[in-house]
Amino acid sequence: MLSFTSCVKPPRENSVKKTYYENGNIKKEITYKDGKIEGVVKEYYEDGALRIETSDVSSVPFY
User: How far does CA 43 lie from the centroid of its chain?
Assistant: First the structure.
């Protein structure tokens, strides 16, 4: 299971980082404000179904 990211640079102060599975489906979506994770983080299964939706930043692995 390989993935690629739409953002190869460190996240900008206010941005949304999205990573994708090889099949083109979204894998993870993380919103940044002032350079820090903010709001809801969403992670998806390879088939596109939502796996996790959390606002608990401590439970989100950074990658």
Answer: 6
Q: Which two tokens stand for residue 47?
A: 């088939």
Residue with tokens 């992670």: 43
The string of pLDDT tens digits covering residues 5-63 is 554 455 667 888 999 999 999 999 998 888 888 888 999 999 999 999 988 776 655 54
pTM: 0.69
**Residue labelled with tokens 């969403």:** 42
Would you kindly state where each structural domain of the chain is located, as residue ranges? 3-57
Please say whether the beta carbons of 44 and 28 come within 8 A. Answer: yes
3-state secondary structure the chain: CCEEECCCCCCCCCEEEEEEECCCCEEEEEEEECCEECCCEEEECCCCCEEEEECCHHHCCCC
